[in-house]
Amino acid sequence: MIKRMNLAIGAAAMALVMAGCSSVPLDQPPVEDKKIGTLPQQPGGGGTQSKVEPVVTDNAGLTNLGPQNVARVILFDYDSYVIKPEYQSIVDGHARWMKANPSRKLNIEGHTDERGGREYNLALGQRRAEAVRRALTLLGVPDAQMEAVSFGKEKPAAMGSDESAWAQNRRAEFTYR
């Protein structure tokens, strides 16, 4: 019984000490609540109305569009990841747009045709995407704006098992975020 009373007295004394050590002065006036972005009260109206502007994440709705009038696909020869000279203007167009829009991000997706094993096609698709990324880097696009990914043969552009379908599937695609 005495032990419980000593504990209760000790706890009360500790609470008094803690209240005395408080760093918040209690004798000062309370902090005035100044609301930012409130409208002045309307005559005859009651209360205030919050003025919160809606968040605009994309001014023109161009998140996935990227540059206009520039193709988004570069085709490759069989078992190759060399960008042909005929696609240089596409790479230039995307590089200019990326430098003009530094907040945008670009995915470069590498693809292959259906021939070859899964691991081989993933590696070849990655080499194609990396080749395009390096070309953009040489034209001044910051590396932080781009990501090279490989889909291998998983997302074919054309179905079929002939040269026409395979030629369309050996590609790198530009996808903007």
UniProtKB/TrEMBL annotation:
Keywords: Cell cycle, Cell division, Cell outer membrane, Lipoprotein, Membrane, Palmitate, Signal. Residues 29-53 are annotated as: Disordered. One of its GO terms (cellular component) is cell outer membrane. Pfam families: OmpA. Residues 63-177 form the OmpA-like domain. It is found in: Cell outer membrane. Residues 1-19 form the signal peptide. The keyword Zinc does not apply. GO terms for biological process: cell division. Part of the Tol-Pal system, which plays a role in outer membrane invagination during cell division and is important for maintaining outer membrane integrity. Belongs to the Pal lipoprotein family. The Tol-Pal system is composed of five core proteins: the inner membrane proteins TolA, TolQ and TolR, the periplasmic protein TolB and the outer membrane protein Pal. They form a network linking the inner and outer membranes and the peptidoglycan layer. This is Peptidoglycan-associated lipoprotein. It comes from Caenimonas aquaedulcis.
